[in-house]
Design brief:
Number of strands: 13
Largest sheet: 9 strands, mixed
Number of helices: 14
Number of domains: 2
Order of helices and strands: EEEHEEHEHHHHEHEHEEHHHHEEHEH
Shape: globular
CATH topology of the largest domain: Rossmann fold
Distance between the termini: 46 Å
Strand content: 15-25%
Radius of gyration: 22 Å
Helix content: 25-40%
Amino acid sequence: MSDNTEDPGQQTEPTPAGGLTPVSGDGQEHGKVLMEAEHLKVLFPIKSGLIIDRTVGHVHAVDDISLSIYQGETLGVVGESGCGKTTLIRALVRLVDSTGGKIKFRGVDITKASRHKLAPVRSQMQMVFQDPQASLNPRKRVGQILATPLSLSGMPKGQIEAESRKLLERVGLNAEQLGRFPHEFSGGQRQRIGIARALAMSPQLLLLDEPVSALDVSIQAQVINLLDDLQHELGLSYVFVAHDLSVVRHVSDRIAVLYVGKMMELASSDVLYNKPIHPYTQTLLAAIPIPDPRENRNRVRRPVSGEVPSPINPPAGCRFHTRCPFATEICSQIEPPLTDFGNGHLAACHHPQNVTAVEIAAAKRSPLSPLAAGDEAPAAVAAGN
C-alpha cells in the first residue's frame, strides 16, 4: 500500500457502500458510515510437503463480502458453523490479514496499514471474544488486565487504578474485585471483565464474537441488557455474531446472513424475520425453537437435505444450490448477484421467495454484489419459480 498521509483516526463522513440509507426496525435512520468492507476476501492456504511447503489449495473463509457498519447501529451476523462469521470480524479488526478487497474505517483505507498507522484505529475498534476464560490471562489479576490498555493509551499511572474501578462498576462488578484472578469469577462475570477491557480504550465499535453463547440463559439476558445500556450511554456501534437467531433479532438493527463465505441476505431485523427472501434464511428461521408446544407442532417444517459444501472446493454458482429445494440449472452455473428488493433488503437468489412479481420487476442489482456474480436479475428466471 502506498504511503497514506491521511490519519486513519480522523473524523470523516464517507458515503455508505452501495448508497443505502441505514434504517433500523423502528424506521429511524442511523448515523454516518463507521466502517466498510469492499469485496473482502480471506483465504487460508493449505500446505503440503515434508521439506518444502507447497500451497495445494485454499479455504475460502470469506469470499467477496461487501457491507457497511453505521454509527450507533448493531449489525447482526448469522449463519451455520464454518460460514465465516468469526473470520469476517477478525479481518475487520485486522487480527487476520485479508487476501483481497478493502477495509475502510471512517473512509480511510486500513487494509494494509502499518502497525504505526493502525494504532489510532485500534483504539477505536475493540473485540469481545466468545470464551471469556480463554481470552483473559489467568496469571494476571483483573486490575492488571484493565491497567494494560489504559497504560497503552497514555493514561498517567496515578489515574489507572481509579479508572479501572470505574470500568468494573460500569459493567456491573464491584471495584473491590480488582485484586482477583479470572478463575475466581463466574462465566458471566468474566465476560463482563472482557467487556470492561474493551471499553478501556473508549472505542466507537465493538466486534462481539458470540459473547453470550457460553453463558446460561439468565446470564445471557443480563449481558445483553448491559450491552444495550452501554450502547445508549456511550453511542457505541456493534457487530454481533451469534448462532441464536432469537438473540440476534432482539439486539440487531440489521442482519447479514452468511453461508460458506458468501453473504446470502442483508436486511433490517424485522424485515428479515417477517419476510425472508433467500431459501437459506427461511431454513435458519424455521429452526428457531418456539416455546409454545401447540404452535411448535403446527409450524411448517423446511428440512434441508445434504451437507454443507467444503469451503476448500466450494460449488460453482450459488453456494446453496446443492441443498436448495428451489434450485434450477442456472443456480449451479451463475452466481446470483445481491439484488435490492427495496428499502435496502438485499438477497442473492435466482428464485427469491416472499416477493411479488411487481417487486421482482423493480429489483435492482446492488453495488455490493460479488465481482464474480452474474447480471442475471431474478426477473429473468421468475417464470421458473
